[in-house]
Design goal:
about 250 residues; five-stranded mixed β-barrel; 6 helices; 6 strands; about 30% helix; globular; PUA-like_sf; LON peptidase substrate-binding domain-containing protein; Lon_prtase_N; Lon_prtase_N_sf
Length: about 250
């Protein structure tokens, strides 16, 4: 078992390998993390792990508020995640490589990172200025019939895009080239579909590429059918969350 210890960045969303993650970082715990990452030699990756939050708050409250206006806000690296941070996070995450890190004059950071590999969360350490975690690498197995499944998923995804564009009264570019590698297809489609965090988390931690593609095929067919039957989706924009303020 190959393990590694990396800084931990919890989010209310799921990062997939190969996908780009833009971040605006303002909380002190994550600013401290980035200051340390900037000490990494330029020829080495600036790596941290992204995990989806199961139970907790992405941004820790900074002032008293509801339901108790007299309560003191939590402080420290685990603020917002309860007494046992390990239980607050989903068990599988993704390593991110911060290719671009820009520090602003007010001490905040603008980060552009890319997901690289899946990891399993083994333990969380809150003893420092920010959370760190012991992580186990998760190999991506192909599974049976991944190639054929990827072709089916791409066809269904194109139909889904067209239906979604029609529901939103917008057009999509038909000239966009989509990948043909089954693993890349599975992650791209998982990230592009409009679904909640638990569903995306299930796709991230699928046992192999073929299993993820089968799940996506079921989801795409179901969603396309729903959109066809219910073309007006006034609440769709509510599913499009802005870039995390962390």
């Amino acid at each position: 078992m190959t393990t590694v210890r990396l800084p931990l960045f919890p989010l209310n969303s799921v990062l997939f390998p190969g996908l780009v993650l833009p971040l605006n970082v303002f909380e002190e715990r994550y600013r401290a993390m980035l200051r340390d990452l900037l000490k990494t030699p330029e020829d080495e990756p600036r790596r941290f792990a992204v995990v989806a939050i199961r139970d907790g708050h992405e941004v820790a409250p900074s002032a008293p508020g509801m339901p108790d206006p007299t309560a003191r806000p939590e402080r420290g690296p685990a603020a917002g995640f309860g007494p046992d941070p390990l239980r607050a996070f989903h068990g599988v995450g993704c390593v991110a490589d911060a290719a671009t890190v820009r520090e602003h004059s007010d001490g905040t950071f603008e980060v552009l990172a890319t997901g690289t590999t899946r990891v399993r969360l083994l333990s969380v350490d809150a003893s420092g200025p920010y959370l760190t975690a012991e992580l186990e690498d998760l190999a991506e197995e192909s599974g049976d019939d991944a190639g054929a499944l990827a072709e089916d998923v791409l066809r269904s995804f194109r139909r889904y895009q067209k239906r979604l564009a029609g529901a939103r009264e917008r057009s999509l570019s038909s000239g966009t080239e989509l990948p043909d590698d089954p693993g890349v297809v599975s992650y791209l489609v998982a990230a592009a579909m409009v679904h909640d965090t638990p569903t995306k988390q299930r796709l991230l931690q699928a046992p192999d590429t073929a299993s993820r593609l089968r799940d996506e095929l079921r989801l795409l067919r179901a969603e396309t059918s729903i959109i066809r039957s219910l073309p007006s989706l006034p609440a769709f924009e509510l599913t499009r969350t802005p870039t995390s303020l962390n």
